[in-house]
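Need residues for this backbone.
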């Protein structure tokens, strides 16, 4: 734990104030906050593994509270001295509300509209930036009120819940907290415990009990910017954390809270660092939502692509090549079928397929900007004293392709497709089945065109998206990710590119393509991008036309629950001879992907053959997705059956009706 302890000690010194005075006798403390000092005689609730909370609590808690209260009092005085000016706040419906700078808050406006609106609102957005409900306006601006159903509102809600989990962990373990972010389905907190100490399932209920105490107290989230710094500090109860925020008004907004699981992790996600304990949780503003979430998790566990991949013998991973998938024969069939389908679509749309190298000299990556901006995500090495890197993206290689000879404008647009292998140096702790790997294959395309051709090319890509996702039964959302803080090139070029993408998105959505959203500052370092998010059968969103073939197979596996549509299925038909005498007839039927003699509920069609079928040159087909065919039905001539099955395969239907 040496590295963790060094970092923790540095943060602790900042929190305590190096050389600062200790709390004076009788110094004010927050209500309910744990007090340092002699052991309390108070009897604490206990669990099978010992006391519910540490008694006495860690000494650093009282020191931290003292320093916060001192700085907060100074900060409040500064705010009180700010000049009050008349301001106006514009709402999304066009209404304009009058207010005072440094007095009027988003919460006061929400309450003024209705009590129910205020209680439903999680966080505000002021001039496009998320903003605490109790934080006063500093000038005139715009206001949006976000609830839990808004993605940004949900992330704030879960971030605040992570602070509650952190408070519970400190009170139970006296641990050193590290990271506590929201995730796509909840939140987690990482912490350093004593040497050899770990979190176990027996800690879940005690942690939830402490969290419920904090929730019942309705601890306010207090925001502080210490004088002379740009650091933001938040407090809820005894927990004080360096945090950019924002947060919900108080812990009482959390109506349902549950610890879900725990694991070990590495400090900063790097295996060379010390091991930490990570606790995952989830929370909601309504208890019914928690019950619905748990049902969704049960279904998701049944559909987990890692579970199905093992059961259907599609793929596996090995410790000798972490993050690199081994596709078994049946998994390879799915893989090749997807790639084959895309190759056909590329050909229809005027793309030419190319093959490019896997490794390049560092000079290329320096020119592209990857060496300066992306090197930590690359596998780099030396060859004959020159530095090289495995490609994490295809873009620079395609630029070399385009530039290897002079080009005429008449060749534009020049569209290329590449199924090249990509390597990215993901932290070992982040590797997750097929969704986060180190070695993967992209269905990657690049279009070289004039500025005047950008709009029409993007429209063509949108049509490509509708075709592929529509075929597989997905709906999708679009986001425009704009210039990040770290970028290459000049701002004028960025502005022009973003304007053209905005125009293309507006035209596409106006034509019935749904809606699109702005995603400020999340573009690639080399250019703005349109992010596509698809929703699966469990209403989960995935950002992925396939992106990574591996990742898309994971999404499809869970979307279909392992019950593949006929054209993708690695086991399209299971031929079952009901008597040994029919075995020779069975061998005549093998023109599709057939299994033999083993019943599997994920196989689409079962073809039963016996003496009657052999004599009439027919089969008795039972469709997995059609209950009416589960019992013996009418016999279908073999030629007719094969014709229908081939049509079902070639038409790539998701609905598996013959």
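Answer:
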């Amino acid at each position: 734990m040496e590295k963790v302890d060094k970092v923790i000690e540095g943060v602790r010194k900042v929190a305590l104030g190096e050389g600062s005075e200790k709390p004076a006798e009788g110094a004010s403390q927050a209500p309910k906050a744990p007090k340092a000092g002699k052991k309390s005689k108070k009897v604490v609730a206990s669990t099978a593994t010992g006391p519910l909370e540490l008694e006495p609590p860690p000494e650093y808690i009282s020191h931290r509270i003292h320093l916060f209260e001192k700085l907060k009092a100074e900060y409040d005085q500064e705010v009180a001295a700010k000049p009050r000016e008349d301001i106006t706040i514009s709402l999304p419906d066009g209404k304009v509300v009058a207010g005072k700078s440094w007095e009027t808050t988003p919460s006061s406006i929400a309450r003024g509209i209705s009590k129910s609106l205020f209680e439903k609102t999680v966080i505000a957005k002021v001039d496009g930036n998320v903003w605490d409900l109790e934080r006063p306006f500093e000038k005139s601006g715009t206001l949006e009120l976000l609830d839990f159903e808004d993605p940004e509102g949900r992330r704030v809600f879960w971030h605040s819940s992570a602070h509650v989990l952190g408070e519970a962990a400190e009170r139970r373990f006296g641990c050193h907290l590290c990271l506590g972010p929201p995730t796509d389905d909840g939140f987690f907190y990482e912490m350093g415990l004593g040497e050899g100490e770990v979190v176990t399932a027996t800690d879940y209920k005690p942690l939830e009990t402490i969290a419920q105490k904090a929730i019942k107290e309705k601890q306010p989230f207090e925001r502080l910017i210490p004088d002379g710094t740009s650091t933001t500090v938040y407090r809820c109860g005894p927990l004080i954390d360096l945090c950019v925020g924002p947060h919900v008004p108080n812990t009482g907004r959390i109506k349902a809270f549950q610890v879900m699981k725990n694991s070990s992790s590495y400090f900063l996600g790097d295996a060379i660092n010390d091991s930490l304990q990570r606790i995952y949780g989830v929370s909601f503003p309504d208890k019914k939502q928690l019950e619905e979430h748990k049902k969704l998790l049960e279904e998701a566990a049944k559909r987990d692509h890692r579970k199905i991949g093992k059961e259907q013998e599609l793929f596996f991973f090995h410790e000798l090549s972490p993050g690199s998938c081994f596709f078994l024969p049946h998994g390879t069939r799915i893989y090749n079928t997807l790639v084959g389908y895309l190759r056909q679509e590329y050909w229809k749309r005027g793309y030419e397929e190319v093959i490019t190298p896997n490794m390049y000299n560092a000079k290329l990556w320096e020119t592209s900007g990857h060496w300066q901006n992306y090197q930590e995500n690359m596998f780099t090495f030396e060859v004959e004293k020159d530095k090289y890197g495995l490609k994490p993206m295809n873009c620079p290689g395609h630029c070399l392709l385009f530039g290897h000879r002079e080009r005429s404008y008449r060749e534009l647009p020049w569209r290329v497709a590449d199924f090249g292998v990509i390597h990215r140096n993901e932290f070992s702790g982040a590797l997750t089945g097929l969704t986060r790997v180190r070695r993967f294959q992209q269905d990657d395309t690049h279009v070289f065109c004039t500025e005047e051709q950008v709009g029409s090319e993007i429209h063509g890509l949108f049509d490509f998206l509708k075709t592929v996702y529509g075929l597989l039964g997905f709906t999708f959302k679009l986001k425009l990710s704009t210039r990040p803080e770290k970028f290459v090139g000049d701002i004028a070029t960025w502005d022009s590119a973003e304007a053209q993408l905005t125009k293309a998105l507006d035209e596409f959505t106006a034509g019935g393509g749904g809606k699109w959203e702005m995603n400020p500052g999340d573009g690639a370092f080399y250019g703005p991008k349109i992010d596509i998010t698809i929703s699966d059968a469990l209403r989960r969103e995935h950002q992925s036309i396939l992106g990574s073939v591996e990742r898309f197979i994971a999404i499809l596996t869970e979307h279909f629950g392992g019950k593949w549509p006929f054209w993708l299925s690695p086991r399209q038909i299971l031929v079952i001879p009901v008597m040994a005498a029919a075995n020779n007839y069975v061998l005549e039927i093998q023109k599709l992907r057939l299994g033999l003699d083993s019943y599997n509920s994920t196989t689409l069609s079962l073809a039963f053959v016996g003496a009657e079928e052999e004599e009439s040159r027919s089969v008795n087909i039972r469709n997995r997705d059609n209950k009416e065919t589960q019992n013996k039905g009418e016999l279908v001539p073999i030629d007719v059956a094969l014709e229908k099955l081939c049509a079902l395969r070639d038409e790539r239907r998701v609905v598996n009706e013959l």
